[in-house]
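Thread amino acids onto this structure.
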């Protein structure tokens, strides 16, 4: 059942495309079974001479058929389906998603192998994928990495193509498959694939880590450092989440990581012994609070370069009514310079 005229039109277009696809597939299959056609090339040549369809669809045609099939699924009225049907469909769609991911990785592998990303002005396949799809840097990098490393892991690739494992299972293996570990992981591929088909991605990562550590505990796959000694993989990003928190992601070079660990350790303070259990902080929360204290002390101590002649400081803008607790009378919500709008409670806490 289609919910709108547009849905009906799209559905009919999808049905037409699917019908064409079925006719082409039937014609192609019939051609393959004809006596005298011994190979794919001979089959296609014979059909070209006969004026028929020359072979399987192009990539663009196949994607059109896939879009039509997806539209057909989206047009289904789920309210008319029983529980068993929607339960089975949810699992089947997960398997189909994995199969689609496998197809994408195959395409991305070709993009990486040909350096085709340079046509769009990108420097790497990962940066191209991130820019064109809006994926996070880490997600794009892991996907390209998986696409390339699956060349050496055909059983894992086949399992993904069959929808028997997910991308998370695949990256649990490929992320560790650096050159110094690849041979060992490839030798154990059959065992790892059997595990991936029945276990969670976390369990696969644990198994891969145990295997990899037997071969190369360090697991580095870094290029030699340039003359300036700076690791080209270093990065740090800070973004604002939808609920106003700051998401910090990065990869620090060895010396910077040591500096940060040393500074955090210096200001890390344990919970008081009489702190109630429900208010005790996790190790990660303690590191967050230590970083807060470190940054606060750094700004208060001065000594940082000025910007426009103004010393570095926490800059917040708030209406006087907000600071007085009369939030409804405030002309505008309080804001921070970099992180944007904040709650009145946060503004008053900063002002104390």
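Threaded sequence (352 positions):
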């Amino acid at each position: 059942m289609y919910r709108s005229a547009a849905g009906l039109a799209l559905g009919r277009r999808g049905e037409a495309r699917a019908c064409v696809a079925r006719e082409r597939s039937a014609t192609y299959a019939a051609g393959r079974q004809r006596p005298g056609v011994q190979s794919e090339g001979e089959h296609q040549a014979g059909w070209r001479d006969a004026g028929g369809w020359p072979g399987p669809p192009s990539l663009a045609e196949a994607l059109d058929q896939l879009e039509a099939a997806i539209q057909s699924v989206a047009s289904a009225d789920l309210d008319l389906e029983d529980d068993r049907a929607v339960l089975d469909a949810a699992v089947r769609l997960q398997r189909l998603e994995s199969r689609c991911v496998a197809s994408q990785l195959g395409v991305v592998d070709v993009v990486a192998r040909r350096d085709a990303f340079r046509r769009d002005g990108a420097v790497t396949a990962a940066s191209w994928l991130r820019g064109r799809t809006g994926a996070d840097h880490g997600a794009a990098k892991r996907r390209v990495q998986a696409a390339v490393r699956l060349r050496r892991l055909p059983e894992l690739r086949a399992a993904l193509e069959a929808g028997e494992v997910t991308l998370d299972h695949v990256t649990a293996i490929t992320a560790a498959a650096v050159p110094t570990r690849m041979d060992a992981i490839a030798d154990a591929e059959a065992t790892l694939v059997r595990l991936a088909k029945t276990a969670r991605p976390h369990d696969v990562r644990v198994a891969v880590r145990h295997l990899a550590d037997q071969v190369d505990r360090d697991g580095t796959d870094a290029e030699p450092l340039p003359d300036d000694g700076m690791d080209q993989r270093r990065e740090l990003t800070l973004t604002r989440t939808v609920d106003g928190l700051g998401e910090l992601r990065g990869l620090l070079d060895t010396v910077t990581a040591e500096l940060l660990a040393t500074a955090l350790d210096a200001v890390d303070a344990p919970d008081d012994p009489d702190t109630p259990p429900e208010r005790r902080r996790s190790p990660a929360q303690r590191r967050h609070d230590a970083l807060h204290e470190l940054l606060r002390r750094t700004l208060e101590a001065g000594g940082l370069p000025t910007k426009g002649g103004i010393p570095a400081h926490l800059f917040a803008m708030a209406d006087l009514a907000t600071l007085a607790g009369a939030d409804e009378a405030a002309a505008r919500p309080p804001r921070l310079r970099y992180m944007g709008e904040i709650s009145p409670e946060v503004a008053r806490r900063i002002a104390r």
